[in-house]
Amino acid sequence: MTVKRVAIVLCVVAGCGGDDDGDELRQGGDATVDDRTIAAFTYATASVEHSQGQEFAMGRSTFNFRWPVPVLGPLFSNDSCRACHDRNGRGLSQIGNGEIRSQALIRVSLAEGTPDVPGGDVPVPDLGLQLQDHATFGLPEVVVTQSWVEHTEAYGDGEAFSLRAPVIGIRRPDGSFLGPDVATSYRQAPGVFGLGLLEAIPDDTLLGLADPDDADGDGISGRVNMVWNAELGATVIGRFGHKATTPTLREQTAGAFEADLGLSNQLFLEPDGMQDLTDEALAATTFFVSVLAVPAAAPRDAAARRGRRLFDDFGCAACHMPTLVTGDHAVPELAHQTIHPYTDLLLHDVGDLLSDGRRDFTASGVEWRTTPLWGLGLVRLVAPEATFLHDGRARTIAEAILWHGGEARLAREAFRLADKAQRDALIGFLQTL
User: Fold this and answer.
1) Taking a C-beta distance cutoff of 8 angstroms, is the pair 200, 337 a contact?
2) In which band, very low, low, confident or very high, does the pLDDT at 217 lie, cut at 50, 70 and 90?
3) Quick check: bond before 70 cis, omega within 30?
4) What pLDDT does 102 receive?
């Protein structure tokens, strides 16, 4: 752990790990909304709603709009942003053809060849870097099936628990399989609130938290992903997506329109220079997801406060950094805020059991970006069938913890070997987020 990281961790623990909740309940700083209902993820930052409400409304309309044939596609995964992020929350771990519209996606690439951008991944001929399992006319690129395999383990006190993992079958419409040289990664849609605050965290903060070579030998070696910024034409720090592969919300939004809905746009044009989405619609949608507020955490009882201390004691806070401070941002309301996202936005090795075996810019198969935990306790309220981790394999928060390995192995084992009262206290704390 670097000196800067130690200083930040000590500040966080000293200020927020005791019986006094401090300001941790205001998870988004001034961009916090006091609503823990099914609508908790749907609000604009209050001051923005008053000053730029029209642009927010336009972006929300575009986000929710169901695109018709023939504008949609010709290849796509779903027909609207909302279809995978209903009420701006997580999508379901659901993928397939026919009437089922996918709320997850499959990334693909080759290990060798010419990448589409400097430092990027090698696209698969005729398939690109993401599979589309629906088509407006004719056959889709692939036929996808999903099933689950389950096994049982036990806590230290003998209580049994079950873990499951997805099994994704992929065939071309003619029945043939993808080649053995094609790497695949199955991922479900994350929530989209609070993203502007994460965009406002300075690069220097992320670099200060990183310890790529584990110089201090503490077993935590988070690092930034270095990715291609299409607008700048340069390699920069990535922060969005399950592997931090996208540098800005504008590029993340434009990429989703293009890859998930088949809608070309200002950043991802047709070969002839034409585009489906207007520049105004892209700008408004980017603004919409930038200024979505973060729900306040629930007040903590004595058990939840104990769970907050265990969060530190077990080592969870080493990656799920409770407190960060934003820097400058184009939206002034997001700038210079003390926020509590419970992430460092860095890549961490979380073990072979969660590996997708696929390189993603500088991220290896076992590396995933630390998921923000704010709003965690509301995920199942907003979407009762939602699940956790990058592919939705975890049906509960406890299962999500128990899948962790690699750098998180000691934290997982501290939880697994703890007595039931401690386990319940930690889960109770996480449900207040």
Assistant:
1) yes
2) confident
3) yes
4) 85
Alpha carbon 78 to chain centroid, angstroms? 18
Q: For residue 103, is pLDDT > 70?
A: yes
Closest listed residue to residue 362, CA positions, set 143, 115, 136, 186: 115
Name residue 109's beta-bridge partners: 183
- Give the mean model confidence (pLDDT) for residues 218-235: 94
Q: Which residue has the higher pLDDT, 52 or 367?
A: 367
Q: Both tokens of residue 195?
A: 């993203």
Which amino acid makes up residue 330?
Answer: A
Binned at pLDDT 50, 70 and 90, residue 9 comes out as very low
Angle between helices 53-64 and 279-290 in degrees, nearest 10 = 100
Q: Which two tokens stand for residue 257?
A: 């329109």
3-class SS letters over the chain: CCHHHHHHHHHHHHHHCCCCCCCCCCCCHHHEECCCCCCCCCCECHHHHHHCHHHHHHHHHHHHCCCCCCCCCCEECCCCCCCCCHHHCCCCCCCCCCCCCCCEEEEEEECCCCCCCCCCCECECCCECECCCEECCCCCCCEEEEEEEEEEEECCCCCEEEEEEEEEEEECCCCCECCCCEEEEEEECCCCCCHHHHHCCCHHHHHHHCCCCCCCCCCCCCECEEEEECCCCEEEEECECCCCCECCHHHHHHHHHHHHCCCCCCCCCCCCCCCCCCHHHHHHHHHHHHCECEECCCCCCHHHHHHHHHHHHCCHHHCCCCCEECCCCCCHHHCCCEECCCCCCCEEECCHHHCCCCCECCECCCEEECCCCCCHHHHHHHCCCCCECCCCCECCHHHHHHCCCHHHHHHHHHHHHCCHHHHHHHHHHHCCC
Q: Residue 7 contacts by C-beta under 8 Å, 6 or more apart in sequence? A: none
Cβ atoms 401, 412 nearer than 8 A: yes
Q: Where are the domains of the chain?
A: 3-430
Instruction: Give the type of residue at 43.
Output: Y
